[in-house]
Amino acid sequence: MSQYQIAIIVGSLRKDSINRKLAQALIKLGPSEFSFKQLEIGDLPLYNQDQDANQAASVVRLKNEVRAASGVIFVTPEYNRSIPGVLKNAIDNASRPYGDSAWTGKPAGVLGASIGTIGTALAQQHLRNCLAYLDAPTMGQPEVFIQVKEGFFDEAGNITSADTVRFLQGWMDRYVLWVKRHAE
Ligand SMILES: Cc1cc2nc3c(=O)[nH]c(=O)nc-3n(C[C@H](O)[C@H](O)[C@H](O)COP(=O)(O)O)c2cc1C
C-alpha cells in the first residue's frame, strides 16, 4: 500500500468530463509512494442542516474517505463564474456538523479545465475562499488554468502537449512536497 493516499474530487458529474480526464492524466504523474482515489459526490443529498445529527450514509462515507486521505486534490469546472453546485454541496456536507468538519488540516490542491479562455480562474478563487475558511492548507502555486480545445486529449485520454504534461508534472512534484510538509 502506498504511504500517502490522496483523495481526488472532480467537480463535474458529466460522463465525458474534461475535468475527470484531467484528473486521470494527473494521477499518472504521481510518485509510487502516492496513490489516488476519486471520491463519489454525485450520490450526496442536498445539504440540509436538519440532517446534521443523522447524516446520510453517503455523507458519512465521504467524510471517512476525506479523513483517511493524506491530502485532497480538487479538479473542477467553472459554472457561471463559480464552482458547480455539486462541488459546493460536497464541501458543505463534509464540513458539518459544526466542529466535525472532515476538511480541517487537509493539504489541498486546486486545478481546473474549461473550454473558456480563463480556464476556471474564478471558480478556483471561490474554491480557495471555502478551503481557507475550512482550514485546509491549499497550495498557492503553481496555478493550473487549463483551456481545453479540440485535440487536447488523445483517444486514450492522454494530454497531447508535452509542454502541458511537463507543467503538470511540475505541479505534482510541488504538491507531493506540500503534502509531506503538512503530514502529521
Ligand atoms: C451550467 C454551466 C455553466 C458554465 N459556466 C462557465 C463559466 O463560467 N466559465 C467557463 O469557462 N465555462 C463555463 N461553462 C462551460 C464549461 O467550461 C464546459 O461545459 C466544461 O466542459 C465543463 O467541464 P466538464 O467537461 O468537466 O463537465 C459552463 C457550463 C455549464 C454547463
TrEMBL record:
One term of GO molecular function: oxidoreductase activity
Among the entry's GO cellular component annotations, what is one? cytosol
Alphabetical list of Pfam families matching this protein: FMN_red
Domain NADPH-dependent FMN reductase-like: where? 5-147
* The protein, known as: NADPH-dependent FMN reductase domain protein
Q: Which SUPFAM superfamilies match?
A: Flavoproteins
Which InterPro entries does the entry mention?
Flavoprotein-like_sf, FMN_Rdtase-like_dom, NAD(P)H-dep_reductase
